[in-house]
What we know:
51% of the residues lie in helices and 0% in strands. By secondary structure, it is mostly helical. The protein is elongated and about 35 Å long.
Amino acid sequence: GEEAALADFIFFVDAGQLEGPASDLKVEDFWYLAPLDAAKAKLGN
C-alpha cells in the first residue's frame, strides 16, 4: 500500500534512481492504488 510505496521512494532516492527528497514524491504519480483500496474495503480493512 501507500506505506510500502513511501519506503520504496526512500530506497530509490538513496540508490540514485529517483531525484529529490523522497518526502516530495507523490505515491499516486507512480502507482495506481484503486484496486488495492477496493480490495481492502471489500475485506473490511
